[in-house]
């Protein structure tokens, strides 16, 4: 992502925080921008190493607090299966169902939204008497590029 695109995303995030009354501190903004510059998923400690270039006193707790805030605001998603984070581009819908396609070869992560999938999952949950409070579905495989290279 280009610096100007990252700055545009930051401006959108700042507006969302202002509307919600959420405090978007300088450290949170720095972590947001670092994450926005990555095309795929990135681990917390990789982000910490990048943050230390800007703030040598940054500690693991610093990055985890910032990522927790960004996640709660709907700006990033945690990918549990690989313990990494990826930028979300649906700021206004922080409670939307999340479906991620994760390439095990190159690390690319695509966020997709399928209302049909969400409805089917919710129907199956309802039939089981289960109430879904938060949804992140992770699918692992190979992206189009990596699949083409393998053939």
From TrEMBL:
**Gene Ontology CC entries for this record:** cytosol
User: Which biological process, per GO, is one annotated for this protein?
Assistant: regulation of secondary metabolite biosynthetic process
Q: Which GO terms describe its molecular function?
A: DNA-binding transcription factor activity; transcription cis-regulatory region binding; zinc ion binding
UniProt: Zn(2+) binding residues = 103, 106, 143, 146
Which keywords, in A-to-Z order, does the entry hold? Cytoplasm, DNA-binding, Iron, Metal-binding, Repressor, Transcription, Transcription regulation, Zinc
Q: Which cofactor does it need?
A: Zn(2+)
Paste the cofactor note.
Binds 1 zinc ion per subunit.
- What is the predominant subcellular site recorded for this chain? cytoplasm
Subcellular location as annotated: Cytoplasm
Q: Record keywords: Amino-acid biosynthesis included?
A: no
The similarity comment for this entry is:
Belongs to the Fur family.
What is annotated about its quaternary structure and interactions? Homodimer.
Q: What is this protein called?
A: Ferric uptake regulation protein
């Amino acid at each position: 992502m280009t610096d100007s695109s990252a700055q545009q995303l930051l401006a959108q995030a700042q507006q969302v925080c202002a509307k919600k009354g959420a405090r978007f501190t300088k450290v949170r903004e720095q972590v947001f921008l670092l994450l926005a510059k990555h095309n795929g998923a990135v681990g917390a400690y990789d982000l910490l190493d990048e943050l230390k270039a800007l703030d040598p006193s940054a500690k693991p707790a610093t990055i985890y607090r910032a990522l927790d805030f960004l996640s709660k605001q709907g700006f990033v998603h945690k990918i549990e299966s690989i313990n990494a984070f990826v930028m979300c581009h649906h700021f206004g819908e922080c409670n939307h169902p999340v479906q991620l396609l994760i390439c095990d070869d190159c690390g690319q992560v695509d966020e997709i939204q399928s209302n049909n999938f969400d409805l089917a999952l919710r129907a199956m949950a309802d039939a089981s008497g289960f109430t879904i409070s938060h949804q992140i579905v992770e699918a692992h495989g190979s992206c189009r590029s990596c699949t083409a290279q393998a053939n």
